[in-house]
Design goal:
With about 220 residues, the chain is an alpha/beta fold. The chain has one domain (about 20-210): Rossmann fold (3-Layer(aba) Sandwich). The protein is built from six helices and nine strands, in the order βαβαβββββαβαααβ. The strands form two sheets. A six-stranded mixed sheet has the order 2-1-3-7-8-9, sandwiched between helices. A three-stranded antiparallel sheet has the order 4-5-6. Helix 4 (about 150-165) runs antiparallel to helix 5 and helix 5 packs antiparallel against helix 6. The longest helix is centred in the first third of the chain and has 20 residues, at about 25-45. Residues about 10-15 have low confidence and may be disordered.
């Protein structure tokens, strides 16, 4: 008689440490969405980091709420419209709003929101609820249509540097250097564009800028 087979050990479910949520329902978000799809997520994948991407019509609270509960999520990177106390997805669907989300959605995670104004109130609230670090903007994130890829590149450097395993402090330094080098280059081409890019840098909030945004020593890896 054949020997009985040993029962197979259950395999752990695969985990994707990066949860991305990208709006793409109007002219502004569509442009940033396409840039991130082409330049950000392939880079993260090459660093062998799995990504769950909630984009376009999937960029809604109901889908996000289910995915963010999965074990292994370490970085939430989001792009969409925002305000001082909320971050929104597809057609303005509210993903996070102060007082209307659970702490375990952010606990022990790094959060980056490429969105207007969310660093003002929502960012510190996310850290109070347990996030390790928050990256975002105090006021509007703006871009110049003639140089939009430069603006998107600077903002996206946050995700690339995190994927490289840098500490939040080193991420801040690298991102600041990328902003400043592009501001200098634009200054000789288009003074208005350079001023707008500099405004984004001044509005950028990280744990290095202010302790309310988390721990500067943490890293994604």
């Amino acid at each position: 008689m054949p020997k009985p087979r040993k029962p197979l050990k259950p395999q752990p479910a695969p985990t994707n440490p990066v949860l991305a949520i990208d709006s793409s329902w109007d002219g502004t978000t569509k442009k940033v969405f396409l840039y991130r799809q082409e330049h950000v997520y392939p880079y993260i994948s090459k660093r062998r980091l799995g990504i769950t991407n909630l984009s376009e019509t999937m960029a809604r609270r109901c889908f996000f709420e289910a995915e963010v509960q999965r074990a292994g999520v370490k970085l939430i990177t989001g792009m969409g419209h925002g305000d001082y106390d909320q971050f929104t997805g597809h057609l303005g669907d509210v993903i996070w709003e102060i007082g209307k989300y659970r702490a375990n959605e952010v606990k022990n995670k790094i959060v980056h929101l490429l969105s207007c104004r969310t660093a003002s109130k929502l960012g510190p609230d996310i850290v109070v609820n347990g996030a390790l670090a928050f990256f975002g903007y105090l006021e509007d994130f703006v871009f110049h249509v003639d140089h939009e890829s430069v603006f998107f590149q600077c903002a996206s450097e946050i995700d690339l540097a995190l994927a490289d395993g840098l500490s939040v402090s080193d991420v801040h330094t690298r991102v600041k250097d990328v902003f400043e080098s592009n501001i200098d280059e634009l200054a000789g081409l288009d003074g208005q564009a350079a001023a707008l890019l500099n405004a984004n840098l001044q509005y950028l909030c990280t744990p290095v800028v202010d302790g309310r945004f988390g721990d500067r020593s943490v890293a994604l890896r």
